[in-house]
Amino acid sequence: MALAMVVELPGLTREEYETVVRAVAEQGTPAGALFHGGGPVEDGYRVVEVWESRDAADAFYSSNLLQTATATITAEPRVVMTWPVHGVDDGTGWRAIG
Fold first, then answer.
1. In whole angstroms, what is the distance from residue 8 CA to residue 59 CA?
2. Dihedral sign, CA of 80, 23, 51, 95?
3. Is the pTM of this model over 0.85?
């Protein structure tokens, strides 16, 4: 089943966020990633993601790619919430997933 998640990264700066997303983007969209959006909040950054499955999210979050991209960052991610996703609209129209 597809999974949505909200993650907060207290203390993360725009420069750090952009460094990570650029490093990941250079390798192409991670397997199973359906959506990623991030932006500043009062004390850092908030990220919203949708993955094809929890396994896909777990594989990315434990990947060497992410570990390398975040090696110099001290912000500790905090998963605020997750929930099952039954459909998405990626700009091409709604479709059921999961």
1. 19
2. positive
3. yes
Mean pLDDT on 42-68 = 96
Structure tokens at 7: 């993650």
Does any domain span residue 93? no
Instruction: Compute φ and ψ for 3, nearest 5 degrees.
Output: -135, 135
The answer to whether 62 and 24 have CB atoms below 8 angstroms apart is: no
Q: Please work out, in degrees rounded to the nearest 5, the angle formed at the alpha carbon of residue 38 by the alpha carbons of 91 and 31.
A: 65
List, in sequence order, every residue forming a beta bridge with 6; answer none if it has no partner.
48, 81
Q: How many domains does the chain have?
A: 1
Residue 98 lies in a domain: no
